[in-house]
Amino acid sequence: MMKKVVLMLIVAFDATGVSLYAQAVTKSRPSAPQATAATDPAARSDDEKAIRVLLDAFTKAFDAGDAAAAAATYSENGIVVDEQGERTEGRAAIRDQYARSFADNPGSTITIKVDSLRLLGPETAIEEGRTTIKPAAGAGAPDVSRFVAVYVKQGGQWRQAVVRDEIARDLTPHDHLKELEWLVGDWVNESQDAVVSTTCAWAVGGNFLDREFTMKTEGRPVLSGTQRIGWDPLKQQFKTWIFDSEGGHGEGYFTRIGDEWVIKVEGVRQDGQPASSTNVVRRLGKDRISWQSVQRTLGGTAIPGVDEFVIVRKPPQVGK
């Protein structure tokens, strides 16, 4: 009977979302026992308390970077579906996934805010809420997502059976852009050929980031421009618009891969030639960024890329 309940929950979860959970459980249970469990205040209180204890155990395991302990809060055949729809099935696979995540993001911690917890019967429950994963100090902005979790009771112990994360679409553009807030400030790159200075600040209203850049050679400005970065709610990605002082312009989208941001840009120069590039930005710490440009084209022809170089934050001026 338990396998039947879990299977029906998983099918409903993937096909049509939360609304079918209750139907799936109702159809798989005799009506009288379920009604008794659902209306017994003492039983409900004990089960809700046990689920809170389980959630606390998961939080402590996550904060400690203990993949085995985090996976132990799942059922043997548990399923996790991330924001991109990638499925991880089975406790062992979930443990391995957490191990990789903890290795890639050491020191991350999680906060779980529960919006609702509903007991659908003596052995099933659904929880909805929001998670905030905060990286280690200086490693970026918190990652916020919504989740829906199905719990099952096996051998008297509650376990996570299905957990699905979803992008928190109720966040404002400003909330999303906090992930890139580390760009705010004054930056400089100096080489034998040129000096590039960049200033980034919040736009009026706080829903965009504006960057101003200037390139000088032998002390003379040779190129300047502006860049605006915002959140595209349709593509659920950061988008950038770029305008240079010579009349060229372009736009592109950000994709995050681990510690790197990959920005694919397409545009047109002032002479009408189309141009494109893939720029890779990596945060090296609080005050250092690496930048590289590859897969560059001009007028439909491949051109050499730009080797990786480091941009550093300018120290504050004396008296400011």
TrEMBL record:
Q: Which Pfam families match?
A: DUF4440
Could you list the residue ranges that cross the membrane?
Answer: none
* Keyword terms: Signal
Q: Sorted alphabetically, which InterPro entries does this protein's record hold?
A: DUF4440, NTF2-like_dom_sf, Steroid_delta5-4_isomerase
In what residue span(s) does the DUF4440 domain sit? 53-159
| Signal peptide feature range | 1-24
UniProt xrefs under NCBIfam families: SgcJ/EcaC family oxidoreductase
Q: Identify this protein by name.
A: DUF4440 domain-containing protein
* Protein's organism: Paludisphaera borealis
